[in-house]
Amino acid sequence: MQLQKNLAAFHEAGIEVVVLTYDHPSLQQLFIDKNVIEYALLSDVDAYPVKVLAILDEGYEPGDGTYYISHPFICFASYINGPPKADGGKQNTPS
Questions:
Q1: Residue 59 structural domain
Q2: What's CA 57's distance to the chain center, in Å?
Q3: In the chain, which ranges are E strands?
Q4: Which residue stretches of 1-68 are H helix?
Q5: pLDDT tens string 13-24
Q6: How far is it, in rounded angstroms, from Cα 37 to Cα 2?
């Protein structure tokens, strides 16, 4: 909820907020609707990015309901000359 509360300040600073959870998109939508969330939520039900980023919490076993949970993390990405063009223009290179 703190992210939503401070979303305008993030945007003013040029920061876009994106959250990655292990929740199914339908559960995320319930959370979005109930709390009027305006930032993007990505669903990682198979823990693929969490495993690739090597942030999977090893304290849980496969089959546990919380197996796909990650260690808390913040990832920053920036782009040279601004974000990628949404209209199919030249994609900028992440730095």
A1: 1-95
A2: 17
A3: 18-21, 40-43
A4: 2-5, 7-12, 25-35, 48-52
A5: 888 899 988 889
A6: 11
d(CA 70, CA 51): 9
Cβ partners under 8 Å of residue 14, min gap 6: none
Please state, in angstroms and rounded to a whole number, the distance separating the CA atoms of residues 22 and 31: 13
pTM above 0.70, yes or no: no
- 50-87 confidence digits (pLDDT tens): 888 888 888 888 888 788 788 888 877 776 666 656 55
Number of domains in the chain: 1
At position 55, the amino acid (one-letter code) is I
Residue pointed to by tokens 């959370």: 31
Both tokens of 31, joined, read 């959370």
